[in-house]
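Subject line: Sequence and fold of a protein, written as structure tokens
Area: Proteins and the way their chains fold up in space.
Start of record: The labelled sequence and token lines come straight after this line.
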Amino acid sequence: MAESPTYYLDLFTGETWDEFNAHGATVTGFRESRWATVRRMKPGDLLICYMTGVSRFIGLLEVTSGGFKSDDPIWSRETFPSRVRVRPIIRLTPETAIPVKSLKASLSWFEEDAHPLAWTGRVRGSPNKIEPKDAEAIIAAMRGAEENPVIRPVDPKQLARSPRVYTTEEGETGEEVTIPEDEPAEEVQPAATTTPSTLGPPVVTHEEIQWMLLRLGGAMGLDVWVARNDKSKEYGGQQFGNMPRVRDTLPRQFDDATNRTIELIDVLWLEGQRFVAAFEIEHTTAVYSGLLRMADLVSMQPNLNIPLYLVAPDDRREKVYTEINRPTFSRMRTPLNSICQYLPYSKLRSFVDQMGDFMAHLKPDFLDSLAEVCDPAA
């Protein structure tokens, strides 16, 4: 009796999928750190190809060799030296690939009591084993798409995303850490305002809060940082990257994984080379991505002493408390609920409006009077 195949996930970006196919689609590769898994692969195992950025299943590969090491150039950005030879069984296009969320009813990844973003943990690295029942459901969907393709447009920006997976410097081989991509908003607030806030209507945009924190930090004489991918955003006619005291670079005192995590935090306050505060703004109900980013940072640098703040609308208070106290975060070596506080929009805005020209006389510890501790034991 033939041995049943083992199913694995094989992650691609739009770019690495194109390069894989351009090279003949006969070899797939993984990072050096995944060699222990790759060397256990055997002919007949099946690799389910998932395209990050667009979050779709795009192909099925049959393993035709054991694992081997090679530096032969295939991919432009990384070597992926832990390799196996493969035979394509199914190859779709990004437009005809299967969106992962279209399989909610078929995959164990989407259990009823799980967090809406819990499934993303399944696609944060490869090769990872996939349960046969889940693999068979994915393969059946891809076969159907191959026979009767349905065109689903893709966002070119999502297709062009590169994976944000880096290696810490701890241990002999290091540990892979995936920097989470922002998930689509679950619930959108009312239409954006276009002028900076004064004593007027409530804050309604993520950009306004980001602008406010940048303005506040700069007014106190601190250097400020805006997330690397937000520098071109603007509020009230001010482009974030051109605001007073916005830095172009950050202190390079950590490994690449930590640096890239820090670079993506919404707003940072700095005094020289010292981080004074870090802010993640969660404008919608999807508060999970900001907490994941902070959790990655704390896990990689457990001795890092940066006050962390999750800034969110007042009507998100209960959700913030619930999410930050989930076992995922509260059972970390340094529980996130002990070092990350909730900063409500209303308190921040009211304080800034009241201080006006006196902001220059503030010290960062004023945040302690506004922020709320999320640890239920506190």
